[in-house]
Amino acid sequence: MTIPTIYVGCDISKATIDVFDPRSGRDLQVDNTEAAIAAFLAALDQTSSCLVFEATGRYDRTLRHLCDGAGLRFCRLNPVRVRRFAEATGRLAKTDSIDARLLSRMGEMIEPKAETTVDAGRERLAALVRRRDQLVDMRSKQRQQAEAAGDPVVAEDIASVCAFLDERITAIEAEIKSQ
Predict the structure, then answer these.
(1) What distance in Å separates the CA atoms of residue 178 and residue 152, rounded to the nearest whole number?
(2) Strand locations in the chain, DSSP E?
């Protein structure tokens, strides 16, 4: 006998996670903190539950890691795909509880591939690449400012900032290559 998967929709924000559990048909809100999420996950049926949520970067990190630690399956979906699903099903209203219900329904209808582990190496590499991109962007802005500096002291200061950024970019790139 196959145990049916129950897709629990989670709409994640910085401070809270709005949840729709189709077993009870209830909406609930969980603080986006380690303790609150751990208590919420402990109450779920580990064998049949699969959490469905949009990829929100740092805001979904705690949930993913706690799911991983609990051996609980989860589906982290592309927000554009979720929006298209909402449009295709005629759901244009947008509140956190509506989004949680939508995510649950999307999981039920499309049965996305569930994850059970977090790849820490991949997360670290993504963080390093993100940081490199930030540094490159800062350096580009500094170079643009140097062109319009007009004052030699300002131009020299900008050049020293660019040199520092070059060093940091080189260090981050070396760390990326070592992964």
Answers:
(1) 39
(2) 6-12, 16-21, 26-31, 49-54, 73-77
Residue type, 118: V
Indicate whether 21 pLDDT > 70. yes
d(CA 41, CA 67): 7
Pairing of strands 49-54, 6-12: parallel
Q: Degrees (nearest 5) of the Cα angle 27, 30, 33?
A: 165
Q: What is the pLDDT of residue 58?
A: 84
DSSP E strand boundaries for 13-140: 16-21, 26-31, 49-54, 73-77
- Where do we find the tokens 């002291």? 153
Q: Where are the alpha helices (DSSP H) in 32-148?
A: 34-42, 61-70, 79-88, 96-110, 120-147
Query: What does the pLDDT look like over 94-138, one tens digit per residue?
Result: 787 889 999 999 999 988 888 767 677 887 888 899 999 999 999
- Reference 67, options 79, 52, 80, 78; nearest CA is 52
Residue 163 amino acid letter: A
What per-residue confidence (pLDDT) applies to 2? 65
Kindly report the average pLDDT of the chain as a whole number.
Answer: 89
Distance CA 75, CA 97 (A): 18
Count of H-run helices and E-run strands, the chain: 6, 5
